[in-house]
Protein backbone atom coordinates (compact mmCIF):
# COMPACT_ATOMS: atom_id res chain seq x y z
CA UNK A 1 0.00 0.00 0.00
CA UNK A 2 1.18 3.50 -0.83
CA UNK A 3 0.31 6.81 0.80
CA UNK A 4 0.40 9.57 -1.79
CA UNK A 5 0.60 13.25 -0.98
CA UNK A 6 0.11 16.14 -3.39
CA UNK A 7 1.48 19.60 -2.70
CA UNK A 8 -0.23 22.95 -3.28
CA UNK A 9 0.79 23.51 -6.90
CA UNK A 10 -0.47 19.98 -7.78
CA UNK A 11 -3.98 20.83 -6.57
CA UNK A 12 -4.14 24.52 -7.44
CA UNK A 13 -6.85 24.29 -10.12
CA UNK A 14 -9.18 21.86 -11.90
CA UNK A 15 -6.63 20.90 -14.55
CA UNK A 16 -4.05 19.99 -11.92
CA UNK A 17 -6.63 18.11 -9.84
CA UNK A 18 -7.50 15.99 -12.89
CA UNK A 19 -3.81 15.13 -13.31
CA UNK A 20 -3.65 14.19 -9.64
CA UNK A 21 -6.65 11.88 -9.93
CA UNK A 22 -5.25 10.26 -13.08
CA UNK A 23 -2.15 9.44 -11.07
CA UNK A 24 -4.17 8.18 -8.11
CA UNK A 25 -6.59 6.11 -10.17
CA UNK A 26 -3.89 4.55 -12.34
CA UNK A 27 -2.50 2.51 -9.44
CA UNK A 28 -4.49 0.17 -7.17
CA UNK A 29 -1.89 0.59 -4.42
CA UNK A 30 -2.60 4.31 -4.19
CA UNK A 31 -5.33 3.92 -1.62
CA UNK A 32 -4.71 6.84 0.70
CA UNK A 33 -4.20 10.35 -0.60
CA UNK A 34 -3.22 13.45 1.37
CA UNK A 35 -3.79 16.85 -0.23
CA UNK A 36 -2.60 20.40 0.37
CA UNK A 37 -4.60 23.58 -0.03
CA UNK A 38 -4.71 25.09 -3.54
CA UNK A 39 -1.31 26.68 -4.12
CA UNK A 40 -0.19 29.28 -6.62
CA UNK A 41 -1.55 28.93 -10.16
CA UNK A 42 1.15 31.21 -11.51
CA UNK A 43 4.12 33.20 -10.26
CA UNK A 44 2.06 36.18 -9.08
CA UNK A 45 -0.77 34.21 -7.53
CA UNK A 46 -1.40 33.90 -3.77
CA UNK A 47 -1.64 30.55 -1.97
CA UNK A 48 -5.04 29.83 -0.40
CA UNK A 49 -3.30 29.41 2.97
CA UNK A 50 -2.00 32.96 2.67
CA UNK A 51 -5.47 34.22 1.72
CA UNK A 52 -6.76 32.59 4.90
CA UNK A 53 -4.11 34.41 6.93
CA UNK A 54 -5.29 37.69 5.38
CA UNK A 55 -8.86 36.86 6.32
CA UNK A 56 -7.75 36.13 9.89
CA UNK A 57 -5.92 39.48 10.09
CA UNK A 58 -8.99 41.40 9.01
CA UNK A 59 -11.15 39.62 11.59
CA UNK A 60 -8.66 40.25 14.39
CA UNK A 61 -8.29 43.91 13.45
CA UNK A 62 -12.10 44.15 13.53
CA UNK A 63 -12.23 45.33 9.93
CA UNK A 64 -14.67 44.34 7.24
CA UNK A 65 -13.49 40.91 6.11
CA UNK A 66 -16.12 40.20 3.45
CA UNK A 67 -13.89 40.77 0.44
CA UNK A 68 -11.16 38.51 1.88
CA UNK A 69 -13.70 35.78 2.52
CA UNK A 70 -15.13 36.18 -0.98
CA UNK A 71 -11.64 35.83 -2.48
CA UNK A 72 -11.24 32.47 -0.75
CA UNK A 73 -14.67 31.25 -1.79
CA UNK A 74 -13.89 32.35 -5.35
CA UNK A 75 -10.79 30.09 -5.42
CA UNK A 76 -12.97 27.08 -4.71
CA UNK A 77 -15.76 28.31 -6.96
CA UNK A 78 -13.32 28.38 -9.88
CA UNK A 79 -12.26 24.82 -9.15
CA UNK A 80 -15.83 23.57 -8.70
CA UNK A 81 -17.05 25.25 -11.89
CA UNK A 82 -14.16 23.98 -13.98
CA UNK A 83 -14.83 20.47 -12.69
CA UNK A 84 -18.51 20.87 -13.62
CA UNK A 85 -19.61 20.07 -10.08
CA UNK A 86 -22.69 21.39 -8.36
CA UNK A 87 -21.89 24.31 -6.10
CA UNK A 88 -23.60 23.03 -2.94
CA UNK A 89 -20.19 22.73 -1.31
CA UNK A 90 -19.73 26.51 -1.61
CA UNK A 91 -22.47 27.03 0.96
CA UNK A 92 -20.71 24.69 3.38
CA UNK A 93 -17.45 26.57 2.78
CA UNK A 94 -19.05 29.92 3.59
CA UNK A 95 -20.83 28.55 6.66
CA UNK A 96 -17.69 26.88 7.99
CA UNK A 97 -15.65 30.09 7.71
CA UNK A 98 -18.39 32.15 9.37
CA UNK A 99 -18.84 29.60 12.11
CA UNK A 100 -15.13 29.60 13.00
CA UNK A 101 -15.08 33.40 12.99
CA UNK A 102 -18.12 33.63 15.25
CA UNK A 103 -17.03 31.02 17.77
CA UNK A 104 -13.27 31.62 17.97
CA UNK A 105 -12.96 35.37 17.55
CA UNK A 106 -11.92 35.80 21.17
CA UNK A 107 -9.25 33.10 20.92
CA UNK A 108 -7.02 34.43 18.13
CA UNK A 109 -4.48 31.61 17.92
CA UNK A 110 -7.29 29.04 17.84
CA UNK A 111 -9.07 31.02 15.17
CA UNK A 112 -5.91 31.20 13.08
CA UNK A 113 -5.43 27.43 13.17
CA UNK A 114 -9.08 26.75 12.42
CA UNK A 115 -9.05 29.09 9.41
CA UNK A 116 -5.69 27.76 8.18
CA UNK A 117 -7.03 24.21 8.23
CA UNK A 118 -9.85 25.22 5.86
CA UNK A 119 -7.46 25.46 2.89
CA UNK A 120 -6.75 21.72 2.82
CA UNK A 121 -10.07 20.68 4.32
CA UNK A 122 -12.26 22.20 1.58
CA UNK A 123 -9.91 20.97 -1.13
CA UNK A 124 -10.01 17.40 0.17
CA UNK A 125 -13.82 17.45 0.19
CA UNK A 126 -13.99 18.75 -3.38
CA UNK A 127 -11.43 16.24 -4.68
CA UNK A 128 -13.16 13.30 -2.98
CA UNK A 129 -16.60 14.31 -4.27
CA UNK A 130 -15.30 14.80 -7.80
CA UNK A 131 -13.53 11.43 -7.95
CA UNK A 132 -16.66 9.75 -6.66
CA UNK A 133 -18.71 11.43 -9.37
CA UNK A 134 -16.32 9.91 -11.91
CA UNK A 135 -17.33 6.43 -10.75
CA UNK A 136 -14.36 5.68 -8.51
CA UNK A 137 -15.49 4.96 -4.95
CA UNK A 138 -13.77 7.66 -2.94
CA UNK A 139 -14.28 8.99 0.51
CA UNK A 140 -13.22 12.18 2.33
CA UNK A 141 -11.80 11.48 5.78
CA UNK A 142 -11.21 14.34 8.18
CA UNK A 143 -8.13 14.24 10.42
CA UNK A 144 -10.49 13.82 13.39
CA UNK A 145 -12.11 10.73 11.85
CA UNK A 146 -8.72 9.37 10.77
CA UNK A 147 -7.48 9.70 14.36
CA UNK A 148 -4.72 12.28 13.85
CA UNK A 149 -4.45 13.46 17.46
CA UNK A 150 -1.88 16.16 18.17
CA UNK A 151 -0.49 18.31 20.98
CA UNK A 152 -2.18 21.59 21.69
CA UNK A 153 0.42 24.15 20.61
CA UNK A 154 -1.08 26.39 17.87
CA UNK A 155 0.73 26.28 14.52
CA UNK A 156 3.23 23.87 15.96
CA UNK A 157 1.35 20.61 16.49
CA UNK A 158 3.25 17.46 17.33
CA UNK A 159 1.72 14.07 16.71
CA UNK A 160 0.67 11.97 19.69
CA UNK A 161 1.63 8.30 19.56
CA UNK A 162 -1.94 7.11 20.02
CA UNK A 163 -2.62 8.33 16.45
CA UNK A 164 -0.61 5.58 14.83
CA UNK A 165 -2.81 2.82 16.14
CA UNK A 166 -5.97 4.69 15.13
CA UNK A 167 -4.63 5.34 11.63
CA UNK A 168 -3.97 1.64 11.03
CA UNK A 169 -7.73 1.16 10.78
CA UNK A 170 -7.75 3.15 7.54
CA UNK A 171 -6.43 0.04 5.85
CA UNK A 172 -9.81 -1.60 6.09
CA UNK A 173 -11.65 0.92 3.89
CA UNK A 174 -12.56 -0.31 0.41
CA UNK A 175 -12.73 3.16 -1.17
CA UNK A 176 -9.89 5.50 -2.00
CA UNK A 177 -9.47 7.91 0.89
CA UNK A 178 -8.75 11.62 0.60
CA UNK A 179 -7.38 13.23 3.76
CA UNK A 180 -6.60 16.95 4.15
CA UNK A 181 -3.00 17.63 5.19
CA UNK A 182 -1.57 20.21 7.58
CA UNK A 183 -3.61 19.71 10.75
CA UNK A 184 -4.83 17.42 13.47
CA UNK A 185 -7.22 17.60 16.40
CA UNK A 186 -6.00 18.08 19.97
CA UNK A 187 -7.33 16.18 22.98
CA UNK A 188 -9.08 19.42 23.94
CA UNK A 189 -10.83 19.12 20.58
CA UNK A 190 -9.19 22.11 18.91
CA UNK A 191 -7.99 22.18 15.33
CA UNK A 192 -4.19 22.55 15.54
CA UNK A 193 -1.96 22.98 12.50
CA UNK A 194 1.56 21.77 11.89
CA UNK A 195 4.17 24.37 10.93
CA UNK A 196 3.88 25.86 7.42
CA UNK A 197 4.37 23.31 4.67
CA UNK A 198 2.99 20.74 7.10
CA UNK A 199 0.97 18.59 4.68
CA UNK A 200 4.21 16.65 4.15
CA UNK A 201 4.06 15.87 7.87
CA UNK A 202 0.48 14.59 7.66
CA UNK A 203 1.46 12.33 4.75
CA UNK A 204 4.38 10.93 6.74
CA UNK A 205 2.24 10.32 9.81
CA UNK A 206 -0.43 8.55 7.79
CA UNK A 207 2.21 6.48 5.96
CA UNK A 208 3.63 5.32 9.26
CA UNK A 209 0.19 4.72 10.78
CA UNK A 210 -1.01 2.46 7.96
CA UNK A 211 2.50 0.89 7.64
CA UNK A 212 2.69 1.90 3.99
CA UNK A 213 5.31 0.31 1.74
CA UNK A 214 6.03 3.67 0.17
CA UNK A 215 5.25 7.32 0.83
CA UNK A 216 4.94 9.18 -2.46
CA UNK A 217 5.29 12.93 -2.26
CA UNK A 218 4.20 14.63 -5.48
CA UNK A 219 5.30 18.19 -6.14
CA UNK A 220 6.22 20.31 -9.17
CA UNK A 221 9.82 19.17 -9.65
CA UNK A 222 11.12 15.77 -10.72
CA UNK A 223 13.01 15.13 -7.50
CA UNK A 224 15.61 16.78 -5.33
CA UNK A 225 18.47 18.56 -7.04
CA UNK A 226 22.03 18.26 -5.78
CA UNK A 227 22.13 22.03 -5.42
CA UNK A 228 19.73 24.91 -5.76
CA UNK A 229 18.87 25.20 -9.51
CA UNK A 230 18.58 28.97 -9.23
CA UNK A 231 22.29 29.02 -8.30
CA UNK A 232 23.81 26.09 -10.22
CA UNK A 233 22.85 25.68 -13.88
CA UNK A 234 21.09 22.36 -14.54
CA UNK A 235 22.14 20.49 -11.41
CA UNK A 236 21.75 16.70 -11.32
CA UNK A 237 18.69 15.17 -9.70
CA UNK A 238 19.56 12.94 -6.73
CA UNK A 239 18.51 9.31 -7.30
CA UNK A 240 18.76 8.15 -3.73
CA UNK A 241 19.42 9.91 -0.47
CA UNK A 242 19.28 8.76 3.15
CA UNK A 243 17.02 10.17 5.87
CA UNK A 244 20.08 11.56 7.65
CA UNK A 245 21.36 13.32 4.54
CA UNK A 246 17.93 14.71 3.79
CA UNK A 247 17.62 16.10 7.31
CA UNK A 248 20.96 17.91 6.98
CA UNK A 249 20.07 19.35 3.58
CA UNK A 250 16.57 20.45 4.57
CA UNK A 251 18.06 22.16 7.59
CA UNK A 252 20.27 24.20 5.31
CA UNK A 253 17.63 25.30 2.86
CA UNK A 254 16.46 22.35 0.70
CA UNK A 255 12.77 23.12 0.85
CA UNK A 256 11.32 20.31 -1.29
CA UNK A 257 10.47 18.09 1.68
CA UNK A 258 9.61 19.23 5.21
CA UNK A 259 12.31 18.15 7.65
CA UNK A 260 9.77 17.30 10.37
CA UNK A 261 8.20 14.81 7.98
CA UNK A 262 11.24 12.56 8.20
CA UNK A 263 10.78 11.73 11.85
CA UNK A 264 7.75 9.40 11.61
CA UNK A 265 9.20 7.64 8.56
CA UNK A 266 12.67 7.13 9.92
CA UNK A 267 11.54 4.95 12.78
CA UNK A 268 9.81 2.31 10.63
CA UNK A 269 12.12 2.85 7.67
CA UNK A 270 9.31 3.73 5.28
CA UNK A 271 10.89 4.90 2.02
CA UNK A 272 9.79 8.18 0.44
CA UNK A 273 9.85 9.15 -3.20
CA UNK A 274 9.64 12.75 -4.37
CA UNK A 275 7.90 12.88 -7.74
CA UNK A 276 6.54 15.41 -10.23
CA UNK A 277 2.77 15.63 -10.80
CA UNK A 278 3.41 17.12 -14.25
CA UNK A 279 5.88 14.37 -15.24
CA UNK A 280 4.74 11.35 -13.25
CA UNK A 281 6.89 8.91 -15.23
CA UNK A 282 10.14 10.58 -14.14
CA UNK A 283 11.82 8.37 -11.56
CA UNK A 284 12.16 11.01 -8.84
CA UNK A 285 14.30 10.93 -5.72
CA UNK A 286 14.08 8.10 -3.18
CA UNK A 287 14.73 8.85 0.47
CA UNK A 288 15.67 5.68 2.37
CA UNK A 289 17.50 4.40 5.38
CA UNK A 290 20.58 3.33 3.37
CA UNK A 291 21.85 3.95 -0.11
CA UNK A 292 24.48 2.79 -2.58
CA UNK A 293 27.55 5.00 -2.74
CA UNK A 294 29.59 5.45 -5.90
CA UNK A 295 32.10 8.02 -7.10
CA UNK A 296 29.41 10.41 -8.23
CA UNK A 297 27.46 10.27 -5.00
CA UNK A 298 30.05 10.49 -2.22
CA UNK A 299 28.48 13.86 -1.58
CA UNK A 300 24.70 13.85 -1.91
CA UNK A 301 24.10 17.54 -2.10
CA UNK A 302 25.35 21.00 -1.37
CA UNK A 303 23.34 23.78 0.17
CA UNK A 304 23.94 27.23 1.48
CA UNK A 305 21.65 29.09 3.82
CA UNK A 306 21.89 32.75 4.75
CA UNK A 307 20.86 34.84 7.75
CA UNK A 308 23.09 33.44 10.45
CA UNK A 309 24.62 35.38 13.34
CA UNK A 310 27.70 34.36 15.27
CA UNK A 311 28.78 35.25 18.79
CA UNK A 312 32.57 35.13 19.13
CA UNK A 313 33.90 34.74 22.64
CA UNK A 314 37.52 34.76 23.79
CA UNK A 315 38.77 33.75 27.21
CA UNK A 316 42.38 33.06 28.05
CA UNK A 317 42.74 29.51 29.47
CA UNK A 318 39.12 28.77 28.61
CA UNK A 319 39.86 25.07 28.27
CA UNK A 320 40.88 24.92 31.95
CA UNK A 321 37.75 26.59 33.34
CA UNK A 322 35.09 24.17 34.39
CA UNK A 323 31.58 25.38 33.53
CA UNK A 324 32.52 28.36 31.33
CA UNK A 325 30.47 27.24 28.30
CA UNK A 326 27.57 26.27 30.52
CA UNK A 327 27.30 29.85 31.81
CA UNK A 328 27.20 31.22 28.27
CA UNK A 329 24.59 28.70 27.20
CA UNK A 330 22.55 29.54 30.30
CA UNK A 331 22.28 33.14 29.04
CA UNK A 332 21.02 31.88 25.68
CA UNK A 333 18.55 29.66 27.47
CA UNK A 334 17.30 32.62 29.54
CA UNK A 335 16.43 34.38 26.28
CA UNK A 336 14.96 31.23 24.70
CA UNK A 337 17.60 31.20 21.96
CA UNK A 338 18.50 27.95 20.27
CA UNK A 339 21.84 27.73 18.48
CA UNK A 340 22.97 25.48 15.63
CA UNK A 341 26.77 25.13 15.72
CA UNK A 342 29.48 25.74 18.27
CA UNK A 343 32.98 25.42 16.83
CA UNK A 344 35.67 26.08 19.45
CA UNK A 345 39.41 26.41 20.13
CA UNK A 346 41.29 26.24 23.44
CA UNK A 347 40.71 29.90 24.23
CA UNK A 348 37.71 30.79 22.10
CA UNK A 349 34.30 29.66 21.14
CA UNK A 350 31.87 30.70 18.42
CA UNK A 351 28.16 30.16 18.74
CA UNK A 352 26.21 30.20 15.50
CA UNK A 353 22.47 30.72 15.38
CA UNK A 354 19.78 31.79 12.94
CA UNK A 355 19.65 35.60 13.06
CA UNK A 356 15.94 35.58 13.92
CA UNK A 357 16.75 33.80 17.19
CA UNK A 358 18.63 36.78 18.59
CA UNK A 359 16.79 39.58 16.80
CA UNK A 360 15.63 42.33 19.17
CA UNK A 361 17.46 40.72 22.10
CA UNK A 362 21.02 41.33 20.98
CA UNK A 363 22.01 44.06 23.45
CA UNK A 364 20.54 42.27 26.47
CA UNK A 365 22.21 38.98 25.54
CA UNK A 366 25.62 40.60 25.10
CA UNK A 367 25.26 42.50 28.39
CA UNK A 368 24.28 39.37 30.29
CA UNK A 369 27.20 37.39 28.87
CA UNK A 370 29.58 40.21 29.88
CA UNK A 371 28.03 40.36 33.34
CA UNK A 372 27.80 36.64 34.09
CA UNK A 373 30.66 35.00 32.24
CA UNK A 374 33.81 37.08 32.75
CA UNK A 375 34.86 36.93 29.08
CA UNK A 376 38.01 38.61 27.72
CA UNK A 377 36.48 39.57 24.38
CA UNK A 378 33.00 39.34 22.97
CA UNK A 379 31.85 40.27 19.50
CA UNK A 380 28.88 39.62 17.29
CA UNK A 381 28.94 39.15 13.53
CA UNK A 382 25.95 39.20 11.21
CA UNK A 383 25.63 38.24 7.57
CA UNK A 384 27.10 34.81 7.94
CA UNK A 385 26.13 32.13 5.45
CA UNK A 386 26.50 28.43 6.14
CA UNK A 387 27.63 26.14 3.36
CA UNK A 388 26.72 22.51 4.04
CA UNK A 389 28.28 19.67 2.13
CA UNK A 390 26.35 16.51 2.90
CA UNK A 391 27.13 12.90 2.05
CA UNK A 392 27.20 9.50 3.69
CA UNK A 393 30.15 8.65 1.45
CA UNK A 394 32.51 11.22 2.97
CA UNK A 395 33.67 8.97 5.79
CA UNK A 396 34.71 6.33 3.27
CA UNK A 397 37.22 8.41 1.37
CA UNK A 398 40.24 10.52 2.16
CA UNK A 399 40.32 14.09 0.93
CA UNK A 400 36.77 15.44 0.88
CA UNK A 401 37.63 18.37 3.12
CA UNK A 402 40.73 19.10 1.08
CA UNK A 403 38.74 19.02 -2.19
CA UNK A 404 36.15 21.43 -0.86
CA UNK A 405 38.57 23.83 0.79
CA UNK A 406 40.60 23.78 -2.41
CA UNK A 407 37.48 24.61 -4.46
CA UNK A 408 36.67 27.50 -2.14
CA UNK A 409 40.25 28.80 -2.08
CA UNK A 410 40.38 28.75 -5.90
CA UNK A 411 37.34 31.03 -5.88
CA UNK A 412 39.01 33.30 -3.37
CA UNK A 413 36.45 32.60 -0.64
CA UNK A 414 37.51 33.23 2.91
CA UNK A 415 36.49 30.48 5.35
CA UNK A 416 35.48 31.97 8.66
CA UNK A 417 34.68 28.68 10.35
CA UNK A 418 34.63 24.94 9.72
CA UNK A 419 32.88 22.18 11.59
CA UNK A 420 32.48 18.45 11.09
CA UNK A 421 30.65 16.15 13.45
CA UNK A 422 31.89 12.71 14.42
CA UNK A 423 29.45 11.01 12.04
CA UNK A 424 31.21 12.68 9.09
CA UNK A 425 27.91 12.98 7.29
CA UNK A 426 28.19 16.73 6.80
CA UNK A 427 30.75 19.49 6.75
CA UNK A 428 29.80 23.00 7.65
CA UNK A 429 31.68 26.07 6.43
CA UNK A 430 30.91 29.58 7.70
CA UNK A 431 31.41 32.14 4.94
CA UNK A 432 30.44 35.71 4.21
CA UNK A 433 26.93 36.01 2.82
CA UNK A 434 28.26 37.75 -0.30
CA UNK A 435 30.20 34.57 -1.18
CA UNK A 436 27.22 32.21 -0.85
CA UNK A 437 26.38 31.65 -4.54
CA UNK A 438 30.02 31.51 -5.59
CA UNK A 439 30.72 28.90 -2.90
CA UNK A 440 27.89 26.61 -4.03
CA UNK A 441 29.02 26.77 -7.66
CA UNK A 442 32.67 26.15 -6.83
CA UNK A 443 31.87 23.18 -4.59
CA UNK A 444 29.41 21.72 -7.09
CA UNK A 445 31.99 21.89 -9.85
CA UNK A 446 34.63 20.03 -7.83
CA UNK A 447 32.24 17.39 -6.48
CA UNK A 448 30.31 16.61 -9.66
CA UNK A 449 31.51 18.28 -12.86
CA UNK A 450 35.20 17.61 -12.26
CA UNK A 451 34.36 14.50 -10.24
CA UNK A 452 37.21 14.95 -7.78
CA UNK A 453 35.86 12.56 -5.14
CA UNK A 454 36.71 9.05 -6.26
CA UNK A 455 35.82 6.05 -4.26
N1 LIG B 1 -1.05 24.83 2.98
C1 LIG B 1 -0.03 24.82 3.96
C2 LIG B 1 1.03 25.86 3.64
O1 LIG B 1 0.94 26.54 2.62
C3 LIG B 1 0.54 23.46 4.18
C4 LIG B 1 1.09 22.76 2.94
O2 LIG B 1 0.79 23.10 1.82
O3 LIG B 1 1.88 21.83 3.13
O4 LIG B 1 1.96 26.02 4.39
Automatic annotation (TrEMBL):
Catalytic reaction equation(s): L-aspartate + ATP = 4-phospho-L-aspartate + ADP
Pathway: Amino-acid biosynthesis; L-lysine biosynthesis via DAP pathway; (S)-tetrahydrodipicolinate from L-aspartate: step 1/4; Amino-acid biosynthesis; L-threonine biosynthesis; L-threonine from L-aspartate: step 1/5; Amino-acid biosynthesis; L-methionine biosynthesis via de novo pathway; L-homoserine from L-aspartate: step 1/3
Residue ranges annotated for the Aspartate/glutamate/uridylate kinase domain, each copy included: 2-276
Listed Gene3D superfamilies: Acetylglutamate kinase-like (3.40.1160.10), Aspartokinase, catalytic domain (1.20.120.1320), VC0802-like (3.30.2130.10)
KW Amino-acid biosynthesis (keyword) present: yes
Family the UniProt entry places it in: Belongs to the aspartokinase family.
Descriptive protein name: Aspartokinase
Amino acid sequence: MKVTKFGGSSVSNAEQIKKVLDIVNSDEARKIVVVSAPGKRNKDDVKTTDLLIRLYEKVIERLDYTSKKEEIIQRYKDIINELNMSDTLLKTIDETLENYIATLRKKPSRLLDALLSCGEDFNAQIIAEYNNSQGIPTRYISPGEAGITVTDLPQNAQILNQSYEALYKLRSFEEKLIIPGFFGISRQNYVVTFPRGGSDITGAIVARGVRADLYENFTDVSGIFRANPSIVKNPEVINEITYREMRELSYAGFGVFHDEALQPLHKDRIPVVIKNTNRPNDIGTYIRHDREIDSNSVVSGISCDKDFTVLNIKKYLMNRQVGFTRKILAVLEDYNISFDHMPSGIDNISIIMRSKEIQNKEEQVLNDIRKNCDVDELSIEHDLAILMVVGEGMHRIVGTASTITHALAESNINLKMMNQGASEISMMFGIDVTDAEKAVNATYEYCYTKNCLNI
